[in-house]
Design a protein that fits this description.
18% strand, alpha/beta, 5-stranded parallel β-sheet, 3-stranded parallel β-sheet, 362 residues, 15 strands
Length: 362
């Protein structure tokens, strides 16, 4: 039997797909290089953006009747219901360990909530790494922040951190096997906290970063995604001491206006954000900053958008990931009036892209 995995979304979804591949390989499935030749097609979806969900429909339409198909990933309950009649089975990502059992029965179209989610074993699955030099290593899953535009707390649940010992053991094996780039993944890596350490002491993210950096061997160390509110002085100090740490850092600001940040439920001000950037650049002069921004958030005036423009010109980001706001069902922002026209969102997006590109041309 052959399988094929289609991935939408972020690095966490890529990592999830590697765990799915690990489960299927252990069940004697073989990877297909062509979706049309696969007996099983697994789609790892992303409800964070409507555009990603729309693309799932496009893939589903091309599947033939002889192929078994499963939908999983970062999924809202409302999206699961919409896809209920299209896919043979819709599976919570935390239940992927049960894939082989599901595939050997005819229990398709049953509701996913009949299966008890196993949060502890989900991250312990051995991945089938897609890349032989770069490895995505989840250190946690879930999110407790509830940014008003984001569905992640509803799709992945509350934050759960992996034991530091297991993370370090996994990365040691990767480095010994020749991996040259390690990414520590989490919806908010800064809030990582392992309370199960044998020493009885809590291992927070700075301590974990130091533990991983001290692993023998030559490798580049990266992490994503980080939240400005949890970017501590301790973390900055540890970063400045790390020998393997990449000098690329993503620090999402989302907006350059305090009022919009408050509506987004981002608990920091632009003044606090700029002070944080100043401290990071002082401790790490060679740091290359990137950021995430949403344009056209409900109620965003031209004046408020111009505050984001001013921030861009002042911070001089190396890379900027700019998203045009679109409402996601179930979030607090979806109850707000989406009153910025799509063409205006595109205009604002282009302005920020041009600023970022102009900086990089110098």
């Amino acid at each position: 039997m052959k399988y094929y995995i289609v991935i939408f979304g972020c690095q966490m979804n890529i990592s999830d797909a590697e765990r799915i591949a690990g489960v299927l390989e252990s069940a004697n499935y073989k990877k297909s290089q062509n979706i049309n030749e696969a007996d099983l097609v697994v789609i790892v979806a992303c409800s964070v953006r409507q555009s990603a969900i729309d693309r799932v429909y496009g893939v589903a339409e091309k599947l033939n009747q002889n192929q078994k198909n499963i939908l999983t990933g970062c999924l809202l309950e409302s999206d699961k219901k919409k896809f209920g009649k299209i896919f043979d089975y819709i599976l919570d990502i935390k239940n992927i360990k049960k894939l082989p059992k599901i595939l050997t029965t005819n229990c398709y179209h049953i509701l996913d909530d009949r299966l008890k989610c196993d949060n502890s074993s989900y991250l312990n699955i051995t991945p089938e790494y897609k890349n032989k030099l770069l490895a995505n290593v989840p250190i946690m899953t879930g999110c407790n922040n509830f940014c008003s535009y984001c569905v992640v707390p509803y799709t992945r649940g509350k934050e759960i951190s992996r034991p530091a010992k297991k993370i370090v053991t996994e990365i040691k094996k990767l480095v010994n096997n020749g991996y040259k780039e390690i990414w520590l993944l989490g919806q908010n890596v800064n809030s990582y906290k392992d309370c199960s350490a044998e020493s009885g002491q809590i291992v927070n993210f700075p301590k974990l970063l130091k533990m991983v950096d001290s692993i023998p061997g030559e490798f580049k160390l990266n992490f994503t995604s980080s939240h400005p509110k949890d970017f501590s002085d301790e973390l900055i100090q540890v970063m400045s001491e790390c020998k393997n740490l990449s000098m690329d850092l993503n620090l999402p600001v989302q907006s350059g206006d305090d009022e919009i940040l408050k509506k987004m439920n981002r608990p920091y001000t632009i003044s606090q954000y700029k002070n944080l950037v100043k401290k990071i650049r002082k401790a790490l002069p060679n740091i290359r900053l990137s950021t995430d921004v949403i344009v056209g958030f409900p109620g965003e005036t031209k004046k408020q958008f111009n505050n984001t423009v001013k921030l861009f010109k002042e911070i001089k980001y190396g890379v900027a990931f700019i998203n045009k706001y679109s409402p996601r069902q179930g979030t607090a922002a979806s109850k707000m009036k989406d009153n910025v026209p799509w063409q205006e969102k595109k205009r604002r997006e282009k302005i920020l892209i041009d600023i970022a590109n102009a900086k990089n041309k110098k």
